[in-house]
Specification:
Blueprint: E1 2-12, E2 15-26, E3 30-34, H1 41-49, E4 56-63, E5 66-68, E6 77-80, H2 92-102, H3 111-117, H4 133-145, E7 151-155, H5 163-175, E8 181-185, H6 189-192, E9 197-200
Parallel strand pairs: 3-8, 3-9, 6-7, 7-8
Antiparallel strand pairs: 1-2, 1-4, 4-5
Helix pairs in contact: 4-5
Bound molecules: adenosine-5'-triphosphate.
């Protein structure tokens, strides 16, 4: 997969968040979008995910050399972000069955295997609303990491995770990064340390914001 950003800019009301952002993301590489709080990392991820529209410039996607229409790009990606909600009324088992209707799992792993890999075996029949915040974060990450998609977008991936959860995240992102584009929005080194490519969103702030 290839994603091309060409002179991309985003403005909310009269405030430009970033401008003139030209960059290419390629399968097989992992990218960190870096910057302080409020610098525009999540905004850029929502643009790449197609959840938000640019104010100027272009964003294009292609898979195996064929262009993908922007409105179809959601089929190729999995995303976790603090603002995304799980369906709290489902049990864990029901949540996986529901999710797999839209995003089949990588390597044909079974739902039971994914539950085991997430370390949530004891919670398989528990309602998601009764999960702790760390368990919910593992579930969100597990669904994204193990979805069979060429684009993996992770915004603040270790939110609510303890040190054991952070080690779990590092192990499983490493197992699932090959042959994909992985993009992490973060300012915490343990979330993005493995990323060989770094994009500093502040480099694209209008001069008055620097
Ligand atoms: N829907 C919106 N309407 C107006 N302003 C917005 C909107 N969403 C974000 N912003 C503004 O855009 C800027 C960038 O926000 P964004 O959430 O992308 O930053 P971030 O780098 O991800 O921050 P953090 O590290 O705190 O999560 C902030 O000034 C924010 O107030």
């Amino acid at each position: 997969m290839l994603i091309n950003l060409s002179n991309l800019g985003k403005r909310y009301n009269y405030e430009w968040i970033f401008r003139n952002l030209t960059f290419t993301f390629e399968s097989g590489s992992s990218y960190a979008i870096l910057g302080h709080n409020g610098s525009g990392k999540s905004t850029l991820l929502t643009l790449i995910a197609g959840h938000n529209l640019p104010s100027e410039g272009e964003l294009s996607y292609s898979l195996s050399g064929s262009p993908i229409a922007p409105e179809q790009a959601f089929r190729q990606l999995s995303l976790t972000a603090p603002y995304l909600e799980l369906v709290e009324e489902f049990t864990l088992h029901e949540m996986l069955s529901f999710h797999a209707n839209f995003k089949p799992l990588r390597h044909n792993i079974s739902h039971g295997q994914l539950i085991e890999r997430m370390g949530l075996t004891k919670a398989r029949n528990k309602f998601v609303k009764d999960f702790s915040s760390g368990m919910k974060q593992r579930l969100k990450l597990g669904l994204a990491l193990y979805a069979d998609t060429p684009l993996l977008l992770l915004d603040e991936p270790t939110t609510n995770l303890d040190s054991e959860g952070i080690a779990w995240y590092q192990e499983h992102v490493d197992l699932n990064k090959t042959d994909r584009i992985v993009i992490i929005g973060s300012n915490i080194e343990h979330e993005y340390g493995f990323c060989e490519q770094r994009l500093h969103i502040t480099d694209f702030h209008p001069v008055s914001r620097r």
